[in-house]
Write a structure and sequence with these properties.
Elements: E1 3-11, E2 14-23, E3 28-36, E4 45-51, H1 60-64, H2 68-74, E5 77-81, H3 120-135, E6 138-148, H4 150-161, E7 168-172, H5 182-191, H6 196-199, H7 204-209, E8 219-224, H8 228-231, H9 237-247, E9 251-256, H10 263-281
Parallel strand pairs: 4-5, 4-6, 6-7, 7-8, 8-9
Antiparallel strand pairs: 1-2, 2-3, 3-5
């Protein structure tokens, strides 16, 4: 799958690039970004996929999170993608910031008209991963995934649904039980239909509860206690905490006074997440 280079920039001894390629699964062009650390010039390096939240793009993490400095030191490749297909021609796709454009929820939609293009799980697991492994010096045996909010939901779900693909997982303020919160109910009812049993397959808390045992050595989650979406019952970290406890999954859920839902919070704890993944991917 050929990629188009939109721009590349020197960054902490490595290269920050922004790219576009055609997705056969989605049927449209998709944009993504890659930070290659300086170690990538000498050989293949571990890869950390980042999934951004509602309203974000493939640029948001690379611009706002401040991750490249330590990624260069640790030798981690960083990859981020857009948060949904765009310009699909579906009526009303951009009318609601919580659904449609920039709100793909990293799932495979089963309901028309969304099922024609909103197949983000397949895109991430198959096409984007294959593109990164083919076109960049990426180590296929050392892949991790993390994300924020809707992307935290996506990271937890993709990791739990594909434990043989991703060896490490963490999240910032993830939507932990989307089948039980307003964001998830709005998105899942339209993407997946009225059958709530189908929703469970994209609910991290439900997936963990059904795991039968701990799928990862440890999972790291950070949550700000000044996060308005926490208080609006959109995130429900206690549900994921309970599910992890029930199956014996080690979970480091850290709650931070004074931090909200934005990138100042993410940047404050980014180094901890990068070191967490570097340690897990080094084994």
């Amino acid at each position: 799958m050929s990629i188009e280079t939109l721009s590349e920039h020197g960054c902490f001894g490595g290269t920050q690039g922004f790219y576009r390629h055609h997705s056969a699964r989605i049927g449209l062009p998709m944009r993504f970004s890659v930070y290659q650390p300086p170690q990538a010039r000498a050989g293949k390096v571990p890869v950390l996929f980042y999934l951004a939240g509602l309203t974000c793009t493939e640029e948001t993490f690379m611009i706002k999170a401040g991750a490249q400095r330590l990624a260069a030191e640790l030798g981690l490749m960083l990859v981020s993608c857009d948060t949904s297909p765009r310009n699909t021609g579906i009526a009303g796709e951009a009318d609601d910031w919580e659904f449609g454009t920039a709100a793909g929820f990293y799932l495979n939609a089963t309901q028309a008209p969304w099922s024609a293009h909103f197949l983000m799980e397949d895109y991430l697991r198959e096409e984007l991963r294959a593109t990164v492994l083919a076109d960049f010096p990426a180590d296929a045996s050392r892949l991790g995934i993390f994300g924020h909010s809707m992307g935290g939901h996506g990271a937890l779900v993709l990791a739990l649904r594909n434990p043989g693909v991703y060896r490490s997982v963490s999240a910032f303020a993830p939507i932990c039980a989307p089948s039980l919160c307003p964001w998830g109910e709005k998105a899942f009812s339209r993407y997946l239909g009225a059958d709530r049993e189908a929703w469970q397959t994209y609910d991290a808390s439900a997936l963990m509860a059904a795991a039968g045992g701990p799928p990862f050595p440890e999972i790291l989650v950070d949550q700000g206690l000044a996060d308005k979406f926490l208080h609006q019952q959109q995130l429900l970290p206690e549900r994921f905490e309970q599910a992890c406890r029930a199956v014996g999954q080690p979970l480091r859920l850290r709650r931070h006074e004074g931090y909200d839902h934005g990138y100042y919070f993410i940047a404050s704890f980014m180094d901890d997440h990068l070191r967490f993944h570097a340690a897990q991917l080094s084994h």
